[in-house]
Amino acid sequence: MGRIEKATLFSLVLLLVWGNMVSGLGAGLACPDWPLCFSSFFPELSFPIFMEHGHRVLGLVVTILFAFLARDRFKSYGKGHKWIPVTCSILLAIQILAGGLVVILQLETNITTFHFANAMIIFILVYTMCTNLSSKELDLINIFDKKNLPYLTLFFLVFFQLVLGAYVRHSNAGLACPDIPKCLGYWIPPYLSKIVSIHLLHRATGIIILLFTLALFFKGVYDNLGNSVMKNLRNLLYLVIFQVVLGVLVVVSKLAFSMTAIHLLIALIIVSVIINLLFVKSKVN
């Protein structure tokens, strides 16, 4: 990756993690208006305002860097792949508008969840553009090959888990089960409210992802897959195990913003490793 690719990807990851911290600190409405903050680009700063307004300013930086990246990819990609920077540009415009709606509608759960889901799609497309500089590289990749079906399944499971986690967060279901591994003192609570059910689904999906990753790893060992594939599978397994441990710490720490931020950062790395797996496995196939 070149400088523009590294700068765009790094700033985007920082933006996502920063947004997570803004939510964790309850600073999402520290600036009650949009796009300015108290009708000023340079508002009087308190820590919550610094976090919220800083998130917006960082978003502007990411947009500028992305514009350079999208321009380069539109030039270097052939007709069959120009849809990637075009689609990503449209999604970024939607993301900016959704960010305004988040403030105007005062953190409405469905809008904030959509805001995060859209951000994840942007991250996936930006990561693809940063790691594949030309159409020649993309021509070697066919992620929808039948042999990639298990990895695609894991990819969609992880994406679902990420969006579900955002919904858990923004619907205040993060501590619906304040104990772990049980929930309200039960393995299966006798009364399953909406927020308890969502919380338990998030935990169950995490366990499914862990078991699925273990299965893929041992199948890779059995099939004697190449070093590049096994390296990614090994890294993925370690990251998923670490993510499960972090999930426990998030509950134990009562949603400490530092724990939730690290939880998201590891999730982004997991997504990146799965994308790498799909790319490497496609080239091997």
Helix percent reads over 70%
Can you tell me the overall shape?
flat
- The fraction of residues assigned to DSSP E strands is under 5%
- H/E element string? HHHHHHHHH
N- and C-termini, Cα separation: 24 Å
**Count of alpha/pi helices:** 9
Determine the mean pLDDT.
Answer: 90
Structural class: mainly alpha
Commentary on this structure:
This protein has 9 helices and no strands. The chain is an all-alpha fold and 285 residues long. The protein has 2 domains: 1-139; 141-285. It starts with a helix and ends with a helix.
Produce a short descriptive summary.
By secondary structure, the protein is mainly alpha-helical. The protein is built from 9 helices and no strands. Helix content is 73%, strand content 0%.
